[in-house]
Amino acid sequence: MSNRSGGGALLSVLRLDAGDRMPLYRQLENAIRQQILTGGIPSGTRLPATRQLASDLGISRLTVKNAYEQLGSEGFLESQRGAGTFVANIAAMEQPPEVPAAASLAGKAQYDLSERSGSVAATKATTRLGGVTAFRPGVPALDRFPRKAWATAESRAIRHGDAGLLGYGKPGGLTELKQQIAIHVRDHRGVQCDPQQIVITSGAQQAFVLIALTLLEPGATVWFEDPGHIGARDAMRLLGANVMSVPVGDDGFELAEAIRDHAEADLMFVTPSHQHPLGITMSLNRRMEILEYAKQHNCWIIEDDYDSEFRYSDRALPALLALDYSGRVLYTGSLSKSMFPALRLGYLISPPELVEAFTAAQSLLSQNVSPLQQQTLARFMLDGNFNAHIRKMRSLYEQRRDLLVDSVERHLGDVFELAPCRAGMHLIVWLRVETAAEISVANSIWDAGVDCLPVSIYCDTQRLRPGIMFGFACAPENEIEEGVKKIVKALDGVTN
Amino acid sequence: MSNRSGGGALLSVLRLDAGDRMPLYRQLENAIRQQILTGGIPSGTRLPATRQLASDLGISRLTVKNAYEQLGSEGFLESQRGAGTFVANIAAMEQPPEVPAAASLAGKAQYDLSERSGSVAATKATTRLGGVTAFRPGVPALDRFPRKAWATAESRAIRHGDAGLLGYGKPGGLTELKQQIAIHVRDHRGVQCDPQQIVITSGAQQAFVLIALTLLEPGATVWFEDPGHIGARDAMRLLGANVMSVPVGDDGFELAEAIRDHAEADLMFVTPSHQHPLGITMSLNRRMEILEYAKQHNCWIIEDDYDSEFRYSDRALPALLALDYSGRVLYTGSLSKSMFPALRLGYLISPPELVEAFTAAQSLLSQNVSPLQQQTLARFMLDGNFNAHIRKMRSLYEQRRDLLVDSVERHLGDVFELAPCRAGMHLIVWLRVETAAEISVANSIWDAGVDCLPVSIYCDTQRLRPGIMFGFACAPENEIEEGVKKIVKALDGVTN
Questions:
Q1: Which residue, among A480, A290, A494, has the nearest Cα to A399 in the 3D structure?
Q2: Which one of A386, B202, B272, B310 is at 20 to 30 Å from A324 when CA atoms are compared?
Q3: Residues 6+ apart with CB under 8 A from B323
Q4: What confidence score (pLDDT) does residue A107 get?
Q5: In whole angstroms, what is the distance from residue B402 CA to residue B338 CA?
Q6: Distance CA B208, CA B333 (A)
Q7: CB pair distance less than 8 Å for A364 and B231
Q8: Chain B CA closest to residue A238
């Protein structure tokens, strides 16, 4: 208690602002606390008397008293009757911290990230453009979503639903929604399943994570389509899987090459309806072959049926799950494409024995999925709004595809060779001049304010010819021709 | 092509139902596909002519033609001009599957779950009762949530917001919401942070997962409060951490014991404001000691500030994060308690260098958090509705706590000794007769339709005296006395 007064130190740094929305006594309290914590006023320092500090600062004495009292109750200050108020003896305050303020941390400390977190690098590459612009792949027609119907349905659930809808909800999802999903996959995908085989997830991505955590040991072998789903592949790696690249041929996933080149698989990741991103439909024979492999080797199959609702020329083959009589297929569905991404809902259909484990793992990842959103969607489906929306979107996307294909053929036919596009929400074009660097083409397009993705970002170890992906689903009709013309201008000089 | 006709096999199993909402041709198609897949009609089998099958089944010939055509396009059937329609030669169909139908899978197959998935066992124990009933711990007053204001805010965002609000949203969260959260933690928790240090998560639980994935290697040492947060502990184990139990004393987390008994920590998990579940406030000295330990050993600290908004007798100590000048504290906040669980929003405040890695890991776990919900909340906060709600709830919870404490003291004072309850949303009572089995007491209470949790489910290796937790926040005032009386009746005979 040698240091007689910290008033000087205090006064020199105090910046009280009567115009701030934080009350003066809180500002004072924070300032004193910070001085104590940073060693500006050491343990044992006597603080100025309340009357004196109030007078020095031109504030009321009550303000100072309030601040001292709070800091006293927190343990920073001690009062000694008759002797005044002192900074308490606080452990570990001997060495004042080297870094004086949290704000100045930026760019200073070097932190070690875990090794596994390195697997997320590829994912970052897809996030260059935010928001929704033509031709962003993977985003549905948000301009045509029936917002009013949805707002009404949601508002009804919030105002008049059971109070439990605001709570954590039933683990694994609401029965009403599972029933509607079971009908949906039966009608659209030929899948006969019991609603109890369904876990409602916060999107397909969460389903991949649940599967990896629940069924794979670290180091497990995963055969993965290449090119393939970036997020699913990175998630498998993040969770310790040994991911092996399998090329995609005319019949889809090249099983024979996988068997020849790789260790036995614990899990295969496939997109049979519409290969992600190439759009190839896996042949029936290939489907039967991978089902047979899975059965013989106790291997799991993730069937990611990500945009199967949108086919324009033919009806889809039934889902792989519909052909599986050995219980090896884990079917993942997304509502981000058929409804909208911000809904954050998807589903995982699995053998009934696995549902409990998936549900428990989900509660550890992020608790349950919002019962309010689930209930709203169940009602939206029950009322027929969901099916009506899908029907409308299918015909809208077909129209947008036609516009884009036509426009690209007319304006960019000498630069791009169009891949067939019979389903889904994006068009792939291959560069005719294969020496052109794919990424510089993509960069030029981005710079012109048009969105796209270079196909190579989907590749792991395979090399494809240079190509670009354009999403047409989210592009309003009147922006399609305009977008293509911007690309023409952007590429002038780049590809010649 | 020896087998001349599959008509008999087909006819014997076909069950078409004209009343089903699935069209007849789809029913027929599914039935034939299933017969082919299960070996009921082998490769090379000639199917009945369309006219004959239509006549046998009493349906239109067009229906049969439609079904044959679809199966032809899928590759299951082949037409030979003049010779008829045959089951195609499909690979891997030689051995008919052993299990004839997906529905019969239940209870048959034995699947191996991953070892790590075993860590979720404890989590399951907390889910015995669903929904919201008195006295469920951890659930806010859903009966008093301002539903109308929220419905209006959300409806406005859905109808009139930018279309991007329906999309995936900005990785890491919307700036508007981060700004509001920064103000909230400044005003309520004494934390000065830049909005850019915040990642919006789908709840505190997701923040724990992001931290473990991004900063811990498998096998990392985690010191964990015991009793402590079940979900956080299980998540750490699920993701490979070596979790070590640290007891909780009068000053909180027993750092000295941890140092004495365990390997050096890579991370500590603490709840300084209101120990989870015991409610102890960590002393200032203990806070400084663990900050000093973290600094010296490059150890991370998760500060879970889970219900810090609700204190009844005193103002809270500032958050640990507010005392940290070395950048080792990772602060997790939940909006499930201050708003409602179905909102699925929380936040993680960290040194700015880590934000990008957390954001990338989040995109792998479950994509981004709904921008629609974020925008709605940001507006709700900006309009002052959030602060007003917290103020109302604080006084409501204080009132409910008083009612519960009073009622338990009057009716159950001879059975239970009440722990002090100055903050939070639950009351802990200790059994006076320590020989009574805690779980049988809890079971009796559950059987009477009243919710509660035995304190021991929060324990890892520590043993506490038998105790029960009652949540009072979600219990309407008129149900409190009634609930306590049910407990009195339920325990009659159990504890004497």
A1: A480
A2: A386
A3: A37, B287, B288, B291
A4: 40
A5: 20
A6: 11
A7: yes
A8: B213
